[in-house]
Amino acid sequence: MTATFLAGRDGRIWESGRIDRPATCHLGAGPSQLEVVVTAVDGRPTKAQLQRLYRLRRDGRANPLIAVVVYSEPVALCGPSGEEPPVYRDVDRHQAQRVSTAAREKPDRLAAHRFLTHALPQLEDAIVGIHNQGLMSPHQLRVGCPSARSRRWAPSTFASHRSSSRSLVASAYPSYGASVPAVTPRAACGRHARMLVSKPTMTGRCPAVRSAQPSPTLSSCSNAIPAGR
User: Fold this and answer.
1) How many Cβ atoms sit within 10 Å of the Cβ of residue 81?
2) Secondary structure class of 183 (helix, strand, coil)
3) Cα(72)–Cα(121) distance, rounded to whole angstroms?
4) Is it the case that residue 218 has pLDDT exceeding 70?
5) What is the structure's pLDDT at 150?
6) What is the rounded CA–CA span in Å between residue 100 and residue 38?
7) Digit-coded pLDDT (tens) for 17-33
8) 60/56 Cα distance (integer angstroms)
């Protein structure tokens, strides 16, 4: 099962009489670099098992280390430092892999340690990527915010679509500057809004003006851009 975690990455096989199964060790960058040691077990590992694997591999060294145990679809992690390192179980495998890969790509062990100290605790949060400290209840973040998004966030969503679409046309035709026609949403839902270019008010060689349709779609405008421009 370890082949599915950090697959395709350069790893070294670690075999020791002190561990039950061989493990794979992936190294970070710099001296005394981060180590990510991955192994597999049949059942959900205990805190003592995870910390034992961590201590056996670290062996009193100063470098940060993450012990990853694959036991099913979720994984368990332990690390990155200390004599009693924190343990994280029932972590989504893909999230754990992304965090491990990002930590290995840090320039040195100090940067990797800072990143892991911040990122690992978030893997147990109900919403990964949001560190909720006194903001609101986790239930409100999971349930209340998404349900309110359509009616409360729609104006901001529309405004962002309008701004980004206008910038897209302006970047293709910088000579028109502020005279690029405004873009407005047609549908009620911001996510699936069909963006239409409003009635052209400028003259020149812009495809939106040359088009036979009074209100061409943004995609029609982009398709009409001559080659080489």
Assistant:
1) 17
2) strand
3) 20
4) no
5) 57
6) 11
7) 788 888 999 999 999 99
8) 9
Sheet holding 75-78, edge to edge: 12-14, 23-27, 35-40, 65-70, 75-78, 87-91
Considering 3-7, 78-82, 151-155, the range whose residues carry the highest mean pLDDT is: 78-82
* Residue 107, SS3 per DSSP: coil
Torsions phi, psi for 123 (to 5 deg): -65, -20
Tokens representing 62 are 């100063």
Sign of CA dihedral 125, 129, 132, 138: negative
CA angle in degrees (0–180, nearest 5) for 119-125-128: 65
Buried b (16+ CB within 10 A) or exposed e, 128-151: eeeeeeeeeeeeebeeeeeeeeee
Q: Which domains does the chain have, with CATH numbers?
A: 2-124 (3.10.310), 156-223 (no CATH)
Q: pTM of this prediction?
A: 0.57
Residue with tokens 């679409």: 165
Cα angle 37, 42, 44 (rounded to 5 degrees) comes to 80
Q: What is the pLDDT of residue 169?
A: 56
Q: How far apart are CA 53 and CA 92, in angstroms?
A: 20
Type of residue numbered 182: A
Q: Which two tokens stand for residue 43?
A: 């059942």
Q: Is the dihedral of CA 153, 157, 158, 159 positive or negative?
A: positive
The identity of residue 46, as a single letter, is: T
Closest CA to 169 of 132, 138, 195: 195
Nearest CA among 86, 76, 78, 115 for reference residue 99: 115
